[in-house]
Amino acid sequence: MEFRRIAKDPGCGARLGKIVTPHGDVRTPAFMPVGTQGTVKALLPEQIRSLEADIILGNTYHLYLRPGHRLIAALGGLHRFMNWPHPILTDSGGFQIYSLGALRRIAEEGVTFQSHIDGSTHFLSPETVVEIQETLGSDIMMCLDECIAYPATREEVERALARTARWGERCKKTHNNPEQALFGIIQGGVYPDLRRRGAEEMSSIGFDGYAIGGLSVGEPKALMLENLAATAPLLPEERPRYLMGVGTPEDLVEAVFHGIDMFDCVMPTRSARNGLLFTNGEKVVIKNARYREDGSPVDSECDCYTCQNYSRAYLRHLYVSGEILAMVLNTIHNLRHYLRLMERIREAIREGRYPDFRNRFLRERTAGAVEGGADAVTGER
Amino acid sequence: MEFRRIAKDPGCGARLGKIVTPHGDVRTPAFMPVGTQGTVKALLPEQIRSLEADIILGNTYHLYLRPGHRLIAALGGLHRFMNWPHPILTDSGGFQIYSLGALRRIAEEGVTFQSHIDGSTHFLSPETVVEIQETLGSDIMMCLDECIAYPATREEVERALARTARWGERCKKTHNNPEQALFGIIQGGVYPDLRRRGAEEMSSIGFDGYAIGGLSVGEPKALMLENLAATAPLLPEERPRYLMGVGTPEDLVEAVFHGIDMFDCVMPTRSARNGLLFTNGEKVVIKNARYREDGSPVDSECDCYTCQNYSRAYLRHLYVSGEILAMVLNTIHNLRHYLRLMERIREAIREGRYPDFRNRFLRERTAGAVEGGADAVTGER
Lengths: 381, 381
Prior knowledge:
homodimer; alpha/beta; TIM Barrel; eight-stranded parallel β-sheet; three-stranded antiparallel β-sheet; 16 strands
């Protein structure tokens, strides 16, 4: 993997770049649609590609449990298995294991946990997590990290941070295939000095890229941004920086400002399945009665297939009727909304006007959010 | 609407033809994918079209209740609403109302029934059913008929038959828009002489096409075929003949032999969503453990997108994981299986070898069914 820095905005940390992988290039800043179980829910690979996605995310924890990484390898690897010949990043599963709560036990050697599918007991270590990802054949692999809940004491965070560093070393030692990149993960909770320490420790180990993990796990938005701002600039300039599991369009715009290059989040796809559609103005809760006879598209400024061909009234009809096509059309729209935002972000950086873009964007969105908020009050969501 | 007869097989009743509608041509014998609620479940219109479907079916009962025919008309009609610019046939809703059982009361004037959605009370008559279909703007409309359960006494069937004829006259009188065709429906239960009477009565009223209804409602297959064979040849040669709600690939092949030109059935789409996939050999119950590591396509002879790009192992993984994409890929395959069968049927008629095609097909399928039957025994479906 190679990371080419194409431009840097003179007025902030925003960077324009390109990640070159064996399965193609990734234009950064990039948003990665989430394809947890070997499918970006509801979409065909060709549809995902047509939305201008360069890379998608797969999940080690889920694929290890079902259908199994060896099965996927026997059938030609994850790209072939799911018919996506373009770049794939696999998450290590640290976050999923953390989410299991009482079903997992973390020790220095690794994590013992029970499958959410059938309750069977499994053990994953920094070594096995890298081996599984090498077996899957993803382009970018993630280290196993210890993600902890918010709130947590400084002592707890410090302990998880230290363990994440030791696990990072073990992942790096296991990493064997030069065709696959390995990213380290920075923890540190909401303690900026611990975030700094994490950034230094992981940088000194040396990875192909660096991720900021353990944010967007329940902490207030201001704390998330503060810790992001404290961490991102400390990460090596010449490597991609990935903010894991974040977030809203506003979060993305803000994080790029601080120098983040990569994102993933279930928000566009999950919201789509729940009938919540993104626009440049207020959000559209498609089941609302106000859209019953609305012949206009979800977003008249959107260039997606859904907005080009269907009315809000039709989408509402599909959604309230429980039709599968609602999931398909909504997902197309929301993902395109995110990916088009990334295009606009890249364009603004290329033209050296990112701070202005960011300020305008956040101002407009704040205005839009007030209108959108009204829907929540009526309880129609 | 115009029906052009292109060829007739010299050895049986099979006919090759073309129905010309304001929204395009329909090659017959034709299979119509079912799009009850304004969507062929799980598929985009472009996907349906790419499977070589010429026409789809919409349902008056469902669309009347939700989202409402006037709403659809206000948004440009059913074609525009659902983004399907090709021919549409709308069923009258007679069968759906019949299926409501205790929730409906049938009188000479029409049918009073309660909505399956919200329990609200509605009244549909032969006149309103035609008016609703004119409002929807379908290319082919169906008369309101009285469909009765199997088994039924001769007296019951006779009464329903007579009423269906009187309702047919009223539908015809209401029919106003020359751009839309109106088909009559032949009832008569499993009494061949009543079927004959129905065919004569409806023919003397004079419709743009004739449908055989009230079959495949629970009667033994042999009775279905006997009554089909007794009815089809009595229908006017120069009009399309439509066998409603039927059936298996074997049923289609057999019905074409007796001179049927059009079919609709939920079998390919519903089976797909239940993970039952059609092949030219045995059926594939995709969740079976035997397909866990199966790298081959569902049907190596199939030219569909699913078979060209995905393994049985991947489809099984999607299905057992409850992924929406399973519904999409399975529906593409099953519909293509049906539509490709129609292509083969038309080719056999064109080449004057339909009886031979039919005999081979039924022989092969019977052999395949025995193998397929084993799955049911293991209870793995």
